């Protein structure tokens, strides 16, 4: 494929992409293929001589498409949204065009410098504290800064590695421990999560090999200061060394918000690294009215949210900020002659390979830049507010119907509900067998998925099976939420 052929075929593909987006809502959102379907449809070896482009295009439609669940459909309400947008796609096309591996500034200065600037833009857009800014108001470099990771899970790992570095350094300087003692101490490090923290916290701990304490959340699914303090006290008396705590702004199950101020106080007193995971809900902070809910994050050591969830930026674009990059860079910086750094004036030079696990990195800031420029802050806020309004509408309609109960406050775009026990039996709620209520609700989720006009998933909270509707599609409108509501009513009745 030479440039001329690419020009022709590339235009055809752009047409196919635009057609796909225009027809998305006419397709059932969920793929219904059976495991192994594709193995039966495609050859089991790469072709010896080149396949024709038209053949491959045809296979996309006939073989790949059936195995796609359409996350970008307006009728997709599963998990959390994974927003795509045309501006982001265009940014990604340029990234693909350059195809540079910007691990050090020297690899392609624009890759590093745009990321630094755009992450500061984003920090300001969500009202993040100045501590997290790479460039201070006076134009000099700050201690902190942002970096784009592939996912919130990677951000969690990276934050925990920095936390371990900080803890070891503190122990070393306060106790003059020998290397042997330090190695032994590493095995006593313990990280704190709530039972609502995303699984990525536990995974990060497994990867770095530290202990974890899962602290029970309160009745509102929040990690509280009191519960955290109690857990820490117990662990310290057992000889463990607390070093990391994760507070969540918008948990996965219910979008609950932990006691972020209380956690900050504990973290400061106990010298813990304080990571705030706002993977989904962080995008809401683009709207100033949500910022009072995030009080406490200004005291965090690291803060993360996924622009690829609810902020119009195609996967992958997970924004991580640290207030002080020293520990992160110390932990992840490894010198080799084949990874040269710039000599001389190094102001504004960030070698982002020291801020992440992999060496190589894509030019991901381009898509974020396109999104922020082409939507503007006002467009991004309208996107968020529209979904929050639709979620509140759905909540109201479900309550009005009388057969449903809302199982967690609707703060952002997520509505968590269930069919209430008294809608199943004509007995008071508290005399109904919980297993039966759970079965009715898991059956409702299965029925909605089988019906396949809309897609959503269920979850379990405090022993109750519930239905989760996450509103947040880029192309979704109130019309899609109307369909969702009608499907819920119809299948509940059935
Ligand atoms: N944290 C929270 C609160 C989440 O809801 C999720 C995913 O939904 C994650 C972390 C993990 O996100 P990622 O897929 O970017 O690792």
From TrEMBL:
One BP term from GO: carboxylic acid metabolic process
Cofactor(s) needed for function: pyridoxal 5'-phosphate
Signal peptide start-end: none
Residues modified as N6-(pyridoxal phosphate)lysine: 309
Pfam family, one: Pyridoxal_deC
Keywords: Decarboxylase, Lyase, Pyridoxal phosphate
Alphabetical list of SUPFAM superfamilies matching this protein: PLP-dependent transferases (SSF53383)
Gene Ontology cellular component annotations, sorted alphabetically: cytoplasm
Annotated source species: Coemansia asiatica
GO molecular function: carboxy-lyase activity; pyridoxal phosphate binding
Annotated InterPro entries: Aromatic_deC (IPR010977), PyrdxlP-dep_de-COase (IPR002129), PyrdxlP-dep_Trfase (IPR015424), PyrdxlP-dep_Trfase_major (IPR015421), PyrdxlP-dep_Trfase_small (IPR015422)
Sequence similarity: Belongs to the group II decarboxylase family.
Name this protein carries in UniProt: Aromatic-L-amino-acid decarboxylase
Entries under PANTHER family matching the protein: GROUP II PYRIDOXAL-5-PHOSPHATE DECARBOXYLASE (PTHR11999), MIP05841P (PTHR11999:SF70)
Keyword Lyase in annotation: yes
Highest taxon of source: Eukaryota
